[in-house]
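re the bet — no i am not wrong, look at it urself. input seq straight from the record:
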Amino acid sequence: MQFSSGLLENAVNEFAKLPGIGKKTALRLVLHLLKLEPEKVNAFGETIMRMRQGIKFCQRCYNVADTDTCTICANPMRRQELICVVESIRDVIAIESTQQYNGIYHVLGGIISPLDGIGPDQLTIEALIARIPKENTEELIFALNPNIQGDTTIYYIQKKLQQTPVRITTIARGIAFGGELEYADEMTLARSITNRLPVEKYMQ
């Protein structure tokens, strides 16, 4: 792809670094920005900068937030005794879109995957375990991707909580094994949460 402008080429290359964005799509986005008034382009850039510099992670659940506590944790209408454990922030968004869950969350920041060099110490597992007695948690719902790494993570955390009086469940197999939550349709995901199972039955 040949460019008559180095500035244009640099902009295209930066957009192409985003996931799912190829060079042609990046070029289309950059050319669209060139058509906009300078004020709108400046506003776009400033919004991205403010997001990157100002965004925080909730000190309680590790979801994204504008303050030290996210709006979900701070909402008194949510069931504070119910924690849904997810791999990433994208999974929180996917579950929230179903409007079928009224508890709070805990974002692990990944799943245990020795082949990828990801162990328990690199995740927020210890913070989760510390939350349960402190917050009088009644139920822990695992909403991890149904694959070997997700099952390994569930098994590890379950073993760590053997002496803790908390109900442990997982979303039903409405999500196909090997699938990913963020790509599941809202109806399937909603049913998986509603029809969640005790971990003991899930792991059999």
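see?? The first strand starts at residue 56 and ends at 57. told u. also The CA atoms of residues 69 and 130 lie 17 Å apart. so pay up
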